[in-house]
């Protein structure tokens, strides 16, 4: 993934600077292919990323186009705007809360503090500004974008689904302890985490690992899910972590049960199918039980 606030550039993936000549660029690409090829012990996800980087800058025309776009405005980073009327008039999922809202607000506060008081900041989402910001700020914006992307997907699931965004799951009022989304539908009740670590990830003993993965995101997700389950008196069917398509191999990876909860990691493009089919080992929900769970959650849920 090369369009994220925290992702490496195509040049960084290939291990060169942006002013490298074409021959050296070609040598770097071949070296990175050997280093990352799965047959020689490399990481398959990184291998795919190297190939994608070469597609972006491997020819003079592609490289020129990429270089022109690197400093261009990226509208998808800006604050979400009201969408135009949809041609599709089918009922959408019931949604509550503002996806990515808390992280958007936090990013705006932090970026203004970082720039400094009295400094004019006409566009806090300017790509050059974002790229130069500390990693903590870029991660904040990247996660907001990830949450918004998930929200767009689940909204199209249809009227059989209800979704709550930015749900307070704290014990002491810390807004960081939140569930990005809760999704309720015929396939089950799921706690959903939307993440963007800025690059390929791996798995170890039921947890997500990677160069930029801090803490234990799966364990933390399950813990926050339990807070809501106890408070609302409901039983979750499973937990789901959503990642950008380029950062995970395969549409769905089942991690098995983590603290008794079935967990799956899914790419954004595979999320809709997973929520319709359900996570492996999860319990379906239907009839009056679905109505009862929705009522309990609606009474309990508080947004950050």
UniProtKB/TrEMBL annotation:
Signal peptide: none annotated. SMART domains: DnaJ (SM00271). PROSITE patterns: DNAJ_2. Pfam families: DnaJ. Residues 9-70 form the J domain. Residues 64-100 are annotated as: Disordered. PANTHER family: DNAJ DOMAIN (PROKARYOTIC HEAT SHOCK PROTEIN)-RELATED (PTHR44240), J DOMAIN-CONTAINING PROTEIN (PTHR44240:SF10). This is DnaJ domain-containing protein. It comes from Microbacterium hatanonis. The lineage of its organism: Bacteria, Bacillati, Actinomycetota, Actinomycetes, Micrococcales.
């Amino acid at each position: 993934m090369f369009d994220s606030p925290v992702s490496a550039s195509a040049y960084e993936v290939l291990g060169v600077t942006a002013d490298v000549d074409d021959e050296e660029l070609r040598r770097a690409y071949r070296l990175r292919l050997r280093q990352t090829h799965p047959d020689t012990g490399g990481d398959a996800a990184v291998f795919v990323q190297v190939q994608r980087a070469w597609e972006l800058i491997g020819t003079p025309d592609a490289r020129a186009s990429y270089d022109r776009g690197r400093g261009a405005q990226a509208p998808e980073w800006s604050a979400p705007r009201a969408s135009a009327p949809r041609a599709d008039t089918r009922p959408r999922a019931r949604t509550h809360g503002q996806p990515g809202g808390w992280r958007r607000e936090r990013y705006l506060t932090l970026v203004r503090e970082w720039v400094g008081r009295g400094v004019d900041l006409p566009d806090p989402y300017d790509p050059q500004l974002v790229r130069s910001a500390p990693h903590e700020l870029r991660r904040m914006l990247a996660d907001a974008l990830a949450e918004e992307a998930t929200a767009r997907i689940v909204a199209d699931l249809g009227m059989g689904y209800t979704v709550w965004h930015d749900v307070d799951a704290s014990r002491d009022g810390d807004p960081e302890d939140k569930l990005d989304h809760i999704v309720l539908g015929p396939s089950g009740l799921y706690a959903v985490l939307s993440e963007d670590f800025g690059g390929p990830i791996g798995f170890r003993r039921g947890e997500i690992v990677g160069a930029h993965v801090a803490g234990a995101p799966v364990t933390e997700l399950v813990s926050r899910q339990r807070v809501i389950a106890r408070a609302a008196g409901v039983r979750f069917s499973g937990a789901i972590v959503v990642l950008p398509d380029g950062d995970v191999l395969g549409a769905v990876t089942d991690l098995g049960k983590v603290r008794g909860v079935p967990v799956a990691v899914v790419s954004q493009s595979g999320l809709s199918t997973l929520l319709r089919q359900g996570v492996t080992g999860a319990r379906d929900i239907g009839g009056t039980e679905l109505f009862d769970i929705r009522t309990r959650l609606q009474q309990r849920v508080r947004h950050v």
